[in-house]
Specification:
Oligomer: single chain
Number of helices: 5
Shape: globular
Order of helices and strands: EEHEHHHEHE
Largest sheet: 5 strands, mixed
Radius of gyration: 14 Å
Strand order of the largest sheet: 1-4-2-3-5
Strand content: 15-25%
Number of strands: 5
Helix content: 25-40%
Number of domains: 1
Length: 144
Amino acid sequence: MTETEIRTKRIYERASASDGTRVLVDRLWPRGVSRASAAVDVWLADIAPSAALRTWFHHDPARFSSFRTCYQQELDDNPAAVDSMLALMKPGRLTLLYAAHDLQHNHAIVLADYLQRRLQAEGEGGVAKKRPVPAETEVVGHER
């Protein structure tokens, strides 16, 4: 595999070797999930939607289109968080973990699409430029 394949998966699903790098993209740690059992490689809370946007959306499918637009704008306005995520991109699979119940209307879906478009825009065959992971990024179980 020469490109980064971005997938989404609920944190409550069993971890698999085929997940590749597992990145939790929720602002809050999921209820009922221990850090040991989550098998999370990196937790990037700052890339999640703002508390205000999350509260407004409230996982209402009727608001998803507007939520998508607003969240993409938040991502555009938060280059440090996006760069932290892009720094994790390498050939192979990247799995974005989230806690939402709705598999089709959640921020991880929007984020995966956003990142895929960023990778294509960089025009490097699907692999982003290597960027250092900022010091404030919580890296779980991996060296920097």
